[in-house]
Each structure stands twice: as structure tokens, then as C-alpha cells.
Amino acid sequence: MKLKAFAALATAALVLPLTACGSGTTTGSGSTVTITVGYQSKTINTVTAGTLLRSLGSFERELKALGDGTTYKVNWQDYATGAPITAQMTAGKIDIGSMGDFPLLINAARGKQLGRPTRLVSVTGYNLRGGLNTIVTAPDSKLAALDDLRGKKVSTSIGSAADGTLVRALQRAGIDPDKGIQKLNQQPAVGASALSAGSTDALSQFVAWPGLLAFQGKAKALYDGAALDLPTFHGVTAREDFATKRPAVLEAFLRAQSEATTYLHDHPLAAAQEVAKATDLPAEVVYLYNGAHGIAAFDPALKPRLISALKKDVSVLKSAKLVGDVDVDAFVDDQYVKRALGPTAYADQLAASPPPAASEVWPKGASSTRTFASPSALLHYVSSHRDTVRAAYVPDATTGTPWFADRAVWVADGNDLRPFVTAATAQAYLAGHLGAHTISYASALERAS
After folding, report:
1. Residues 321 and 314: beta-carbon distance below 8 Å
2. Interatomic CA distance for residues 328 and 60, integer angstroms
3. Is 223 left (phi over 0), alpha (psi -120 to 50) or beta?
4. 207 Cα distance to chain centroid
5. What is the set of domains in the chain, with CATH numbers?
6. What string of DSSP letters covers 278-297?
7. What 3-state DSSP class applies to 271?
8. Which residues lie closer than 8 Å to 206 by C-beta, 6 or more apart?
9. What global pTM score does this model have?
10. Would the N or C end of the chain have less CB density within 10 A of its end CB?
């Protein structure tokens, strides 16, 4: 969203009646307080602070357990992107919100500008290489690499993490992100429709849109955001005045987020199905991102590597005139999550590493998945169980980004079968491996059998 449009939205929100969130009414038997949470149901790397958290009822249980004589009600508000959540937060209408890294910076900038500062209090889903964002094209598109985007129409949501990936990827390819392409500022669903209709040549978006379109056979990956090797993440932001007035409530939310994270780790298939039910997304797509070896890792810790990446993001938004200077250190506030989890547990999460990439099959009707030592071993299994495989996932041989096995680009290198998310990364591998060549998925299955 461009700055003028964003400002207009925020201004419009400010003139709404300020029936403040985090406040309540007093009755003869006590008080009732409504806590308003803004989330993005289809941005599935925020599920531990949104969709999954809501479906599990974790926050409501934590609020009840406070035992402070207050009756708490939770007002869940679902949005497609982070911008309207920020507008409502700076209008005093939302207490707690979750969004991606670039929107978080806009959240910080707008909060300070409008005198309603916000604070980044935890992390939801992240990928240390940047694999949460992907550029896709139509399945029959002849575009094969970033350089092919010169002069083409590319849909994205300006100011989003996916826009940041697009800008950085184009810059690395020597393409001016402002003049080298025709950028269309569109909501994710609109961009997806535009790609299907042929009115845009490519789409750069965040989860779960690229995986969803690939799963549906409506797109193929052109650029894997993990090629940037720069962390990207989603996080939880809270209004400073709300956090100061009701720290116990914010800490209850963060404990609930931790509970949802533990549930996701312990029951990855069930969690994927819970989110799928709530969002109407295919469970196979949810699992691609949030599974046991999915693209995203989850824990609430504000890891220094993620905060360092956030500081590097500021320059991208400044160049687009979406923010001025942002004091990231002042925006990040880990005191609440430390108290919510306890110092030992928080230190453990700070030191934790994401689970290693793995080849994984989800058998039909199964309550657990099967992992394999290599993509070739997975293909061997799939070739003899074709009618009983619900989904198969393989990590890109270069970036480690998981992708659907039947949507990957396969390379035969001697006896090895190597999967890639995009044709470009496959071609880069071929350039350094004499005799290696691309093959179809059907051929890969035949060789593995």
C-alpha cells in the first residue's frame, strides 16, 4: 500500500469513535473488559498468534486463569494484510496484532508518527533464508528467470514482505525495481486472480498464496525467496499504552501463543487440519509451510538474527518512501515474552535452531507423516504407493526450501535425483555439474522405482 493511501486509511480509522480496546465496563458484580486481536487467517505463518490460537481457545483460557475478578472477552478481527491492522491499532481500536516483517516496520513508524507507539513483543513463523516469500508465474509462462521480468507486469502488495523480496531480488539481478518492471499494487487475492486471467505476468506474494497456486496447478515458482539468504518473519505487535496498562493480559496472550506453538510442534498434521478448516485452505498447503519440516519455523523468541534482518529492511521501505527512520531497538520489547515464558525457557528458545529440511510424505488417512533420508528415497516410496499418497514434500537441493514433489523441477545427476523449487536454481546447478540434466516428475518416479 502506498504511503498516501496508507495515511488515508489510518486517518479514516482515527476519526472513528474510540470505544477503546483493552477497556471495559463496571457492573455490580465486577468488570468486563474486551481485548481486540487483529490477525490474518490466511497468512498462515501467524497462526500461533491468530488462527490456530483462536481455534484452540488458548487465550481465553489464559485470561480466565488470571483470576483477577475481571470478565474478559476477546474480539477477533480477521484481515487480509497488515496495513488495516496497523490503521486500527493507531486508532486505538486493536490491542494486539500480528503481521510480517515489513508491515511491522510500517506499524512502528505509523505508531510513532500518530502518537500511539507500538511494540514488537514476539515472533510467530520465520525462515532464516527468506523462503516465506515466492515469485510465481502462470504454469505455461515462458518466463524462466528474474531477468525475464524486465518490462513485465508484476503484482505484489506494496509495503509487504513479498514486495521486499521482489525489490531485493530485482536489485540483485540488476533491474531497477521502480522502472524495470510494471509493478501492480494489489491485494493477494486480486493478484492471484490477475495471474490466472493473464492480466499480470508474475505475482510476488507471501504465504500461503504461492504454495496454494502451485498446489492448484495455477502457478509455477519463478523465484524462491530463500535465494536471498536473508531472514524473513512474522511477529506480534501491541500498543504501548495497552501493554503498560494491562501487562498481565499481554503476557497471558504470549503464554497462549507459546501453548499454540507447542501444539503445532507436537501435532503438526492436526494443527494443519485445524488451520485448513478455519481458513478453507487445503491442509496440504498449510502443511507445506507449517509442517514438521515446513518452510516456516515457529517459536516466540525475538532472535537477534531476526532483529538484525529487520534493521536491514528499513532501507528498502525508506527507498519506497513508505517510512522514514525507524528505531528498531526501541520498537523491540522482549520484557513481556520473557516474563510470560520464564527466563530459562526463553533462553532455550533463543538458542533453538529450526528443524532440518527433510523429504516427507503424508499418506492418505494417516495421523503422522513419513520422512526419508533423501528425495530419491521419497520418490522410490511414492512410485510404489501412488494411490495412497496425499502429499509429498522435498527440500530444494540448493536453498532447502520445501516444495511439493510433483511441482518441483527435477535434475538427474548420475544416480542422484535432485529437486529444485524453480527452473532458475536448477539451471544454476546444471551449470556446475557436467552431465546433469532436467527430467520430468514422471521420469524421476520411473528412475526411482
Report:
1. no
2. 31
3. beta
4. 5
5. 3-127+233-351 (3.40.190.10), 133-228 (3.40.190.10), 359-448 (no CATH)
6. HH---HHHHHHHHSTT-S-E
7. helix
8. 43, 45, 100, 132, 133, 160, 161, 162, 188
9. 0.92
10. C
Between CA 53 and CA 299 the distance in angstroms is: 13
* Neighbour-count burial for 151-179, b at 16+ CB within 10 Å, e otherwise: ebbbbbbbbbbbbbbbbbbbeebebebee
Query: What is the residue-level pLDDT of the chain in tens, covering all 449 positions?
Result: 333 443 344 334 333 333 445 755 433 346 999 999 999 999 999 999 999 999 999 999 999 999 999 999 999 999 988 999 999 999 999 999 999 999 999 999 999 999 999 999 999 999 999 999 999 999 999 999 999 999 999 999 999 999 999 999 999 999 999 999 999 999 999 999 999 999 999 999 999 999 999 999 999 999 999 999 999 999 999 999 999 999 999 999 999 999 999 999 999 999 999 999 999 999 999 999 999 999 999 999 999 999 999 999 999 999 989 999 999 999 999 999 999 999 999 999 999 999 988 999 999 999 999 999 999 999 999 999 999 999 999 999 999 999 999 999 999 999 999 999 999 999 999 999 999 999 999 999 999 98
3 is written with which cell numbers? 504511503
SS3 of 358, please?
coil
DSSP result, 145-170: SGGGGTT-EEEE-TTSHHHHHHHHHH
Three-state secondary structure call for residue 75: strand
Distance CA 429, CA 334 (A): 41
d(CA 40, CA 47): 8
d(CA 97, CA 54): 13
Residue 24 gets the label, from left (phi > 0), alpha (psi -120 to 50) or beta, of: beta
Residue in the structure block whose three cell numbers are 526419508: 372
Determine phi and psi for 239, rounding to 5 degrees.
-65, 135
Environment class of 89 (CB within 10 Å of its CB; exposed 0-12, middle 13-18, buried 19+): buried
322, 159 contact by CB (below 8 A):
yes
